[in-house]
């Protein structure tokens, strides 16, 4: 199954979360903070810290460590609040 991250194709195994697929693909930055633009990525991995927020098909605030991608999803780095 393939989705896109910031326009580039990423392959995910069945049952794999967006965050796991991106990490396996060598991508660690999932969002940038609102004020300083500092990079953030997976921290807790269980949906508690909200550091892994991404934009999925135009919807911001999706926790990449919990969400499973669907074929053709457009996933993007979240800038600030999205
Ligand atoms: S890594 Fe903490 S909520 Fe996703």
Note down, in words, how this protein is organized.
The protein is mainly β and 82 residues long. The protein has one helix at residues 18-24, and strands at residues 2-5, 8-11, 31-32, 39-40, 53-56, 59-63, 74-79. Strands 1, 2, 3, 4, 5, 6 and 7 form a seven-stranded mixed beta sheet that branches. It is globular and about 35 Å long. The termini are far apart. The mean pLDDT is 96. FE2/S2 (inorganic) cluster (FES) binds next to loops. Residues 42-45, 47-52, 63, 65 line the site of FE2/S2 (inorganic) cluster (FES).
Main features:
binds FE2/S2 (inorganic) cluster; mainly beta; 33% strand; seven-stranded mixed sheet; 82 residues
Strand content: 25-35%
Q: Compute the number of helices.
A: 1
Unreliably modeled segments:
none
Query: What string, H for helix and E for strand, traces the elements in order?
Result: EEHEEEEE
Largest sheet features: 7 strands, mixed
Strands, count: 7
Shape: globular
**Separation, N- and C-terminal Cα atoms:** 25 Å
Helical content (DSSP H or I, runs of 4+): under 10%
Bound molecules: FE2/S2 (inorganic) cluster
Quickly give the structural class. Answer: mainly beta
Mean pLDDT: 96
What gyration radius follows from the Cα positions, in whole Å?
11 Å
